[in-house]
Amino acid sequence: MLRLPPFEYQPARSAADAVALLARYGADAMPVSGGTDLYANMKQRLFTPKILVGLRPITDLHFIAYNEVTGLTLGALATLTHVAESDVVRKYFPALAQAASVISTPQLRNAGTIGGNVCLDTRCNYYNQNLDWRKALDFCMKKDGDICRVAPGSAKCVAINSSDTAPVFQTYGARVVLHGPAGTREVDIAEFFVNDGMQAWAKRPDEVVTKIVVPPPEAGTRSAYRKLRLRNSFDFPILGVAAMATFDPAGTCRSARLVLNAVASKPMDVPDVARALVGSTFEPEAIAAAADAAFAVGRPLDNTSGTIPYRKRMVRVFAQRVLEDIAAQT
Fold first, then answer.
1. Which of 23, 77, 87, 92 is the most interior residue, by most CB within 10 Å?
2. pLDDT tens digits along 3-19
């Protein structure tokens, strides 16, 4: 049985309190909210913090709010279950409700938070193993080594972003609100994620995510999310596809966006999808052209379950399916 390493838990009562505790303990400290990923990684000795700064007691970050001017605001500590079952999320941002509802298991969705899922550590078959396994193979650059075991010639880590909500937030044009020693700042979510498996976010170690803000949808907006995993429960995605489109009253597409995930260290926009779909009524030919555009961009590596050829083929299949889901909405 894998056991947690020793640590001290320090509860924070506010975002400012959490930032102060992180500053006090420096590299010895990490923030924790639901802990559904962090504690598992600690058992594998991927992280060994001496201090865990507990965010759960920060009561004013457990909310979900919506209005037509500012849109949706999610407190970072809203649970995944809360997000998946929220009436306003289901009504205005159905792809987000879909994505939150397929994360892990009901028990872990009750504990895991939306902020934690956005900040989910990047994953790789050579990294997410216990300490004895990694010692036997020799370490990778993401933890204790100096070489990428997936792409030995790569100068950076290619561990993948496996957050289900990240690509959905990117299609919606969300912003991440961060609080740190210098105060509060907002970052567009497309800039929040960095295409580097080791430095995957534009979040400093002394900052905490406090909110995620999603602008209100335009009239005629539809959205959907599809997740590929080997077992249709519990597993992390080996491919995620999120899409959004707006339609005029006649059913003609005015704008479209599709984002792939679990094929790189950050969610990937596919601009050619909009070129294929705008001006169409989502007829089969337009959807097929958009799926081809996604297929051209998605280049999975050998860093998660499923073979590369299978995952590559599924990029086209799941892009087509998610666009068909949107076409079927009324």
1. 77
2. 999 999 999 999 999 99
Instruction: Please give the class, per CATH, of domain 1-58.
Output: alpha beta
DSSP string of 191-213, one letter each residue: HHB-S-SSS-BS--TT-EEEEEE
Q: Where are the beta strands (DSSP E) in the chain?
A: 8-11, 29-32, 51-54, 64-67, 71-75, 175-180, 183-188, 208-214, 221-228, 239-247, 253-261, 268-269
Q: Is the pTM of this model over 0.85?
A: yes
DSSP 8-class letter at 92? H
CA distances in angstroms from 104 to 97, 107, 117, listed in the order given = 14, 8, 11
Is the Cα torsion angle 186, 202, 164, 34 positive or negative in sign?
Answer: negative
Is the distance from CB of 83 to CB of 96 less than 8 angstroms?
Answer: yes
CATH T-level assignment (fold) for domain 221-328: Enolase-like; domain 1 (3.30.390)
1-58 shares its CATH topology with 59-119+160-214: no
Q: Are strands 51-54 and 29-32 parallel, antiparallel or unpaired?
A: parallel
165, 185, 173, 197: which is closest to 264 by C-alpha? 197
pLDDT tier, 313 (very low <50, low <70, confident <90, very high otherwise) = very high
* Listed residue (263, 247, 253, 249) closest to 319, CA to CA: 263
Residue of 322, 323, 273 whose CA lies nearest to 295: 273
- Copy the structure tokens of residue 143: 């933890």
- What residue spans define the domains of the chain? 1-58, 59-119+160-214, 221-328
Task: Give pLDDT, residue 231.
Answer: 87
Fold of 59-119+160-214: 3.30.465
Q: How many residues belong to the chain?
A: 330
Q: Across residues 176-203, what is the average pLDDT?
A: 97
